[in-house]
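step=encode ok
step=design start
structure_in=
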């Protein structure tokens, strides 16, 4: 099954961009999470084009328009740019807080804690592969007194929930991931290093 054989509700402009710049590769891939998919996403270049990044940020924000998000928080450098776009398109516009590594864990810089404590927070990252980073970050944000309203990503190679929160993966309707025992892909699988 190729990506084109799966039905889609995603904006065709986003898919055209991803195809044009070879940011998606068709095949049979196994991710670090153990899940399988018919695509490999180029996570390093995924948000390199500001026009495409803004469209993807808008599409994610649209999914959370009614969630009354006050802060968009990102646990990684890859999610930081996307978090800016998502926050920009929310109404009212949300603030943005990024993770900061400290003492071997991912946390929020003291100067940004006020954007998390007692706020409605949307967690955003560009991709979720194993879910380890985002799960730890979600726990940190919750410990700070935030109400986590959801998890948004461009593509999720992990399960449908993360840390007890449902995950919305923008590209997952078009490009699902499967547990190994439910994978419909017949071709030999190639491991993905991330």
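sequence_out=
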């Amino acid at each position: 099954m190729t990506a084109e054989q799966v039905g889609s509700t995603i904006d065709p402009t986003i898919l055209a961009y991803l195809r044009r710049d070879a940011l998606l590769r068709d095949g049979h891939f196994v991710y670090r999470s153990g899940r399988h998919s018919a695509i490999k996403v180029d996570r390093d270049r995924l948000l390199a084009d500001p026009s495409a990044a803004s469209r993807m940020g808008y599409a994610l924000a649209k999914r959370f328009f009614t969630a009354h998000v006050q802060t968009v928080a990102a646990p990684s450098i890859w999610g930081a740019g996307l978090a800016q776009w998502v926050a920009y398109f929310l109404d009212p516009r949300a603030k943005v807080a990024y993770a900061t590594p400290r003492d071997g864990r991912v946390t929020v810089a003291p100067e940004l804690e006020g954007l998390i404590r007692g706020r409605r927070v949307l967690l955003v990252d560009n991709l979720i592969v194993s879910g380890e980073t985002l799960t730890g970050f979600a726990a940190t944000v919750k410990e700070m007194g935030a109400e986590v309203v959801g998890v948004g990503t461009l593509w999720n190679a992990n399960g449908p929930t993360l840390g007890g929160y449902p995950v919305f993966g923008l590209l997952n309707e078009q490009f699902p991931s499967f547990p190994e025992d439910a994978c419909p892909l017949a071709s030999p699988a190639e491991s993905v290093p991330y």
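step=design ok
step=annotate ok -> The chain has four helices and eleven strands.
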